[in-house]
Amino acid sequence: MAKVEQFPDQSGENGITENIKDQKTREIFDTGRRQGNSQMPDDSLLMGSSTGQNPARETAGEKAQGKSQGENALTYKDQIKKHRERIRIYRIFGTVIAVIVLLLMVLFFTTRRYNRAEIVKVRDFPAEEGAVCVNFDGHVLQYGPNGATCADTNGRVKWSITYEMDQPIVSMSGDMAAIADYGGTSIYVMSVKKQLYTVNTSIPVHKVSVSECGEVAAILNDSTKSWIRLYSREGKEIAYFIRSMEENGFPMEVAVSPDGEKVCVSSLLMKDDSVVSNLSFYNFGKAGKKYDQHLVGYFEYTNEVFPYVRFMGNKACAAASDSRLVVFDTSGTEPQNSFNNMLTENLQGIFASEGRIGLLFTDLTRENLYHLDLFGRDGKKEGSVGFTMVFDDIQIKGSKVYINNERSMQIYTVNGREIFNGGFDRAVKTLIPSSRLSGLAAVSENEIDKIKLR
């Protein structure tokens, strides 16, 4: 008979015991939940105890780790701050070095002295017989009895005109020029770019002055009277007045302001056995219409001759005699004498630029042959240049003074510092200064040259 193996019945004694244990356990948990027993075992605590971990130590470790992270974060910020501080110091240091280098460069170029001039031919520029070459706003203007030509310093011809004149005279202001036939009846007005207009007068031309805007004032004389006529940029007569030589004197010089509205005439008159010069100011703008013949100012000087008058902008006009330099404030309708400088030495010549006037005297100290005193728009002395060269021309360009003859050249700053003193290897007729020393040009025999200073 087969033996049947019997398994314990789960519903037996052992089963009953387990059921009782489970029931008691549930009762304990239920009672704890009803009573809100806070001391009941927590799963995490049980897990912690089962894994051997200490909750208190774990919390302290987390705090230590947080503190370490905070210290690391603080250290990182300090590092960024220090890095930025280093960059700032480097930038300051770099700026200081750059300023020092710049100052050294400025010092080098402002105190540099040259002693050799190399002339390099640029282009042929045939010279007309009897023609005169002059610096025309950085260009070459060649004019003579039969015509005139304008070219840049690279030899490119801008314009060329023909005419017939017995004695051509020229006036230049900025990039404008007027060529007139002294004692004739023709006036040609040009810019550096082109010819603008021609004026034919019925009365002989004695003096002509062109403004920076292209208007021209001309003194026309006959045997008893003089006419001062003002022409527009288009060549139309816009104003004129007549002066009696017996009453007003013989007109010697005329100047017109850059805006073309103001005119100054210097005249010479004999009165009571004395020589009297008068400076007459005219205003042909709206402000001068209410004045008789537009005469807005009149100044007399006894025993003086004023061969030189020049507007220095619209707000100032300078006049020089053999014994004084006077500057008039022309900012208002009626001019005012704003500066009067009496000269204690014999005046040898007058040279001017757009913003300065140079008065040339014999050097009485005998340290030099001449000295050129330079004055600004306000009449105040800005500097003096002493030199020994027997010169053909003196030009003031910017803050530099150029002195030359055919074979030699000297360059000075306005305050008298020598930049160059040397000779040429060929005869130079005309210097053409530039705003930069590297742009210096010259007209030699039948050619235009560049001058390189070494």
List keywords for this structure.
single chain; 454 residues; alpha+beta; Methylamine Dehydrogenase, Chain H; four-stranded antiparallel beta sheet; globular; disordered N terminus
Can you give a write-up of this model?
With 454 residues, this protein is α+β, with helices and mostly antiparallel strands. The protein has one domain: Methylamine Dehydrogenase, Chain H. 20% of the residues lie in helices and 44% in strands. The protein is built from four helices and 32 strands. The radius of gyration is 48 Å and the shape is globular.
What's the layout of helices and strands?
Blueprint: H1 13-35, H2 43-51, H3 55-111, E1 117-124, E2 132-136, E3 139-144, E4 147-151, E5 157-162, E6 168-173, E7 176-181, E8 186-191, E9 195-200, E10 205-210, E11 216-221, E12 225-231, E13 237-244, H4 245-248, E14 250-256, E15 262-271, E16 274-283, E17 295-302, E18 308-311, E19 316-320, E20 324-329, E21 336-342, E22 347-352, E23 357-362, E24 370-375, E25 381-387, E26 393-397, E27 400-404, E28 408-413, E29 418-423, E30 428-432, E31 441-444, E32 447-453
Antiparallel strand pairs: 1-32, 2-3, 3-4, 4-5, 6-7, 7-8, 8-9, 10-11, 11-12, 12-13, 14-15, 15-16, 16-17, 18-19, 19-20, 20-21, 22-23, 23-24, 24-25, 26-27, 27-28, 28-29, 30-31, 31-32
What's this, in brief?
This protein is α+β, with helices and mostly antiparallel strands. It has helices at 13-35, 43-51, 55-111, 245-248, and strands at residues 117-124, 132-136, 139-144, 147-151, 157-162, 168-173, 176-181, 186-191, 195-200, 205-210, 216-221, 225-231, 237-244, 250-256, 262-271, 274-283, 295-302, 308-311, 316-320, 324-329, 336-342, 347-352, 357-362, 370-375, 381-387, 393-397, 400-404, 408-413, 418-423, 428-432, 441-444, 447-453.
